[in-house]
């Protein structure tokens, strides 16, 4: 495994352990995480910490499993599965989604770029429609729940 592969894999293990400090330390000062579907962007180490805690707050029992990791130079692609129960508020750029108590299994994919041993960029892809359906919400219900 390359150093970037090892570092990428360690970030998912850190999330499972709720070690948000490790995630922050692995992010470049000018690094960013972007949720592609919504355009939500998290900047720098503090942004990486917010990204991790956002999901952990919404899914306190959540865990991720790396299904496939492909690396080429400074680029790493990670396909993974997230599982958890939505027992906390999920805070998103589109508004808060109050706890539904429902379990969810979601397929996700991150495209990461590393520079000097740090995450320079991460683009996170997942099916928000599947997420909302599993939580028992439609887009309209999620919006009205925030008001």
Automatic annotation (TrEMBL):
The UniProt entry, under Gene3D superfamilies, shows:
3.10.450.50
What Pfam families would the database entry show?
SnoaL (PF07366)
Recorded superkingdom = Bacteria
- Coiled coil ranges (UniProt) are none
Record field: transmembrane: none
This protein is called what? Ester cyclase
């Amino acid at each position: 495994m390359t150093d970037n592969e090892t570092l990428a894999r360690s970030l998912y293990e850190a999330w499972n352990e709720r070690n948000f400090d490790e995630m922050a330390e692995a992010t470049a000062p000018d690094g960013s995480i972007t949720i592609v579907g919504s355009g939500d962007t998290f900047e720098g180490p503090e942004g990486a910490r917010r990204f991790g805690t956002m999901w952990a707050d919404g899914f306190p029992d959540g865990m991720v499993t790396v299904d496939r990791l492909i690396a080429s130079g400074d680029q790493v692609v990670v396909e993974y599965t997230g599982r958890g129960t939505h027992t906390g508020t999920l805070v998103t750029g589109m508004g808060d989604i109050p706890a539904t108590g429902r379990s969810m299994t979601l397929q996700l994919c991150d495209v990461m770029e590393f520079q000097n041993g740090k995450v320079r960029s991460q683009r996170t892809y997942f099916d928000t429609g599947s997420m909302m359906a599993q939580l028992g919400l439609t887009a309209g219900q999620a919006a009205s729940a925030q008001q």
